[in-house]
Every structure is written in C-alpha cells, then in structure tokens.
Design a protein that fits this description.
The chain is built from ten helices and ten strands. With 286 residues, the protein is of the alpha/beta class. It holds the Pfam family Rhodanese.
Length: 286
Amino acid sequence: MSSSAFETPVVSTEWLAAHLGEGDLRILDCTWHHPSTNLDGRTQYRGRHLPGAVHFDIDQVADKTNPLPHMLPKEEDFAAKMGLLGVGTGDRAVVYDRLCGGAAAARAWWMFRVFGHENVALLDGGYAKWAAEKRPAEMAPVRPEARSFTAGFNPALLRTLDQMKANLASGAEQVLDARGPGKFDGTQEDVYAFAKRGHMPNAVNVPWGDLVDTQTGALVAPEAISARFAAAGVDLDRPIVTTCASGILAPMLSLALKLLGREAPVYDGSWAEWEKAADAPVAAAA
C-alpha cells in the first residue's frame, strides 16, 4: 500500500483536481452501458475522459468462460490486465464512470478490493460532476506504461450461489437487493432476459438510486445513507451481503456501507445466476 492511502472509499472532484498528475495516482474510466442502450463506454471514453485516465471495461476484465455477464476473472487474469492498464501494486487507483452514482465504477472498486488492492477510491459524482464543474478533460487515448500488479484473492468480500443458498437456511447474513422496486418485486422486466422475476426470499430492497443525489450524481451524506438503511429495517450491526441483477449495482450498496464503516460482501452471480438455479426459491409481489 502507498504511504498516502485513501482514508475513505470515495474522493471528491476537488481532491482529485488537486492531486492530478501525482506519480502513484492512476485514474480508470469504468463507463459501461448495457448493450440494449446502444451506448458504448469505450466510445465515450475516446470522446472525452479525465486527464491521464485509461478505460476499464467490466465486460473485458471478466471471466469470459462463464456464461453469466461480467463475472469476476481469475486472480492472475485481473493482475495481468491491471498491469497492462498501468496500475502497479503500490499505486492509488481512482475509478469513475458516466452514470449517475457510478455503479460500474463501484464494481471496479469492489473488484480491486476482492483482489487485495485496498488502495482504491471512487470519484464521487463521476464524470458528470467533474464536467459540470468545468474541470479539465482530454480526448487522446492514454497509452500507459505497463506495470507489475500483484493480486491476492480475498474471499471474504465475495459470496457464491452455494453460500447464498446456505444463508437461506441460516439467516446469518441480511441480503440487500440494490435493484429498483419493480425489478425486486417482479412487476417490471429487467434488461436481461430473465426467465423468473422477483427476489430471493427474505431479501430487503434498498434501491441503489436512493443513495444518490440526482442533482450531482454524488452519494448522499453518510447520515442520509444510514437513515435509508434504517428505514428499510437493516441492522447495521449484523452481517450483510449485497445483490442485484448482474453484480453491478450491488457494489454501490457495499461502497455506501463501507462509508459507514461496515464491510458487505457482494453476491457476484446475483439474480442472473439465482434465477437459473432450479433449487433456488423465488419470492415476488402477490
């Protein structure tokens, strides 16, 4: 870890503007869109990005042998790809994207931590807030110098299908679902062609959007985050695991909980995996 490690999981646009160009600082543009939107994160990156930023594509930094969308890659694969993106073992990494709240960037934040790199922070408000403040951006793609990145897998930050099934019986961990209420209760179709709609039995719905200021795209204040979890009946003193549709929105909840000093692993397969399992029960609106 660098001697100037991040103190919180997010940094402000003011902080990043003041530290641009520092030797151990790496910036990653994690902009991602579902194919149905006809938008492309890499194209947007090429159009304009933060100074020095490289593009981190969660569909490419993924296990391509897994039929589920953008599941975690192997440890050595993540290490190789981060090294090629110019991120070294001792570097500070700042991640951002273009979506309000920064869900794809939150997934990247979580991935770094799963692979042992704690020195990572999300840019609060992302590209939109940065651009709204008329801060510098550039168009030329960045060709980083390759660096050596050492990954060390931390299974404590990840949950598997088998662990989630076991948790159904034990109730040891509270399951927080980050999807919107319509997707959670099964009344609204997902952008993924899921055969089943609804949620895991006993899961609690905390839509990720409730934690974001729609004006700035930044996270709401920690007190407001805490109040939102409390309103949903979440006990912050008990273990928590987060889930969503395909493992992109769940890390937003985990990041928000980290701001409150709580560690919450992510169920990577999320609904995309759960709804395919024949022995995984489904709850939905009456």
